[in-house]
Amino acid sequence: MVKRGRRGLGEAAGFGLARHGSPAPHEAIAVPALPDTPHYAGHRDRLRERFEAAGADALPDYELLELVLFRSIPRRDVKPLAKALIRRFGSIADIAGASVPRLMEVDGIGHATALDLRIIAAFSSRAMKADVARRDVLSSIASVVDYLGASMGQLGREQFRILFLDNRNGLIADEVQHEGTVDYTPVTPREIMRRALELDAVSIVLCHNHPSGDVTPSLADIDMTRQIIGMATPLGIRVHDHIIVGRGKSLSMRTERYID
């Protein structure tokens, strides 16, 4: 009786031994091919290093936006996405002011990424507001306009807000008075004066946005501003200006001589 032998351990395990245990000829071992290295490998580190060494001013807008997107999109080349956002909205300030639904209109921007951009924008707006509050508002009007542009420039409906100032032109409060439809915001001069007196404000700056992007004041804007000035003057409250904010631009009604 012939006893059937067991397969050798090496053969069973695939170690290249012949059926009867003799060594097999030398064979090359197949190594799985490594995936191609992404063309953007190392780009993130280099960009971070440039930012750390030279600051934000050394980076164009799309690269600064890339740094933000790195946090939300960890494994993807985000440069095309950053450029697409800028093409769609025009500037970083306009991206910061855009709503989550509008941001998601850009292909590749999901809800989580859009929400992250809004959180960063809210942080920036809060920081700018704090900076404005520490200054003489009228001597830093550029900062005020930047702050208003970031907080109002991309709103889908009109918003009317007022900066209430003390006797040193310091910011007492920044308050939204009314929100309207896409082309109409109801404003009551009497209500504005009542609030100014409550806050002991010496002067005010009126602000509202035009969702269309055109910052040219309407006849209604001019008439309403003059009504507020007419009611404020007898009360000893000065209306310094009325700033209209659009998408990426703004207009001072006093500078443009719509009001005296």
Could you give the topology of this structure?
Elements: H1 9-12, H2 43-54, H3 61-72, H4 79-89, H5 92-97, H6 100-103, H7 111-133, H8 141-152, E1 159-165, E2 171-179, H9 189-198, E3 203-209, H10 219-232, E4 238-245, E5 250-252
Parallel strand pairs: 3-4
Antiparallel strand pairs: 1-2, 1-3, 4-5
Helix pairs in contact: 2-3, 3-4, 7-8, 9-10
Strand portion: 5-15%
Number of strands: 5
H and E string: HHHHHHHHEEHEHEE
Shape: elongated
Report the radius of gyration as a whole number of Å.
31 Å
Q: Roughly what percent helix? A: 40-55%
Strand order of the largest sheet: 2-1-3-4-5
Number of helices: 10
Uncertain residue segments: 6-20
Mean pLDDT: 81
Structural class: alpha+beta
Major sheet description: 5 strands, mixed
Beginning-to-end CA distance, first to last residue: 121 Å
Explain the overall architecture.
The protein has helices at 9-12, 43-54, 61-72, 79-89, 92-97, 100-103, 111-133, 141-152, 189-198, 219-232; strands spanning 159-165, 171-179, 203-209, 238-245, 250-252. The chain has 260 residues and is α+β, with helices and mostly antiparallel strands. It has a five-stranded mixed sheet, sandwiched between helices. The chain starts with 8 loop residues before the first helix and ends in an 8-residue tail after the last strand.
